[in-house]
Amino acid sequence: MLKLGFAMCGSFCTHKRAVSVLSALAASGGFSITPILSRAAAFTDTRFGTAESLRGAVSAICGRAPVVDIVGAEPLGPAIPQDILVICPCTGCTLSKLAHAVTDTSVTMACKAHLRADRPVVIALASNDAMAGNLSNIGELLCRKNIYFVPMRQDDVEHKPHSLVADFDRVPDAITAALEGRQLRPLFL
What we know:
This protein is α/β, with parallel strands linked by helices. It has one domain: Flavin prenyltransferase-like (Rossmann fold), CATH 3.40.50.1950. Helix content is 37%, strand content 19%. The chain has helices spanning 15-27, 39-43, 51-62, 70-73, 92-99, 106-115, 135-142, 171-179, and strands spanning 2-8, 31-37, 84-90, 121-127, 147-149, 152-153, 164-166. Strands 1, 2, 3, 4, 5, 6 and 7 form a seven-stranded mixed sheet that branches. Strand 1, helix 1 (15-27) and strand 2 form a beta-alpha-beta unit. Helix 1 runs parallel beside helix 3 (51-62) and helix 5 (92-99) packs across helix 7. The model has no long low-confidence stretch (mean pLDDT 92).
């Protein structure tokens, strides 16, 4: 059974799809899952749902409470190693922090600790500025060792022309590919 870190950031409109992915991964029986929530995901109520409901759903699926702070995330590298870390959804803010080595959240700390051990990270991006302010960060991370992206597409070309959202159905394939050391192609759908 593989140890999977599953991190969620504050792309609130995609939480329902991310929880569905998490549920499918847990149901597959192939993973022992450690859930990780950013502060925004763990403690912000929105029109898409309450933080308490999200924490409860994640806890029920994984059989353990999510890691929600830097102190809890730091051991996930060397002390409590995971075979793979998935950030689903990954916001543009978190993407930018990863590209610039900023470690100030539970998710960025889990990623830093995980990469310290040369293990793969899969990013399922959901960002309204992915093809604007964050495009350079995508390029930067594509060149980094052990960073892999879930294939993504524009989700609303007319109203959000700079937005990209990962194809959440491809997360399991992206995990398999990353464990084999390869990036799924095509990257942009």
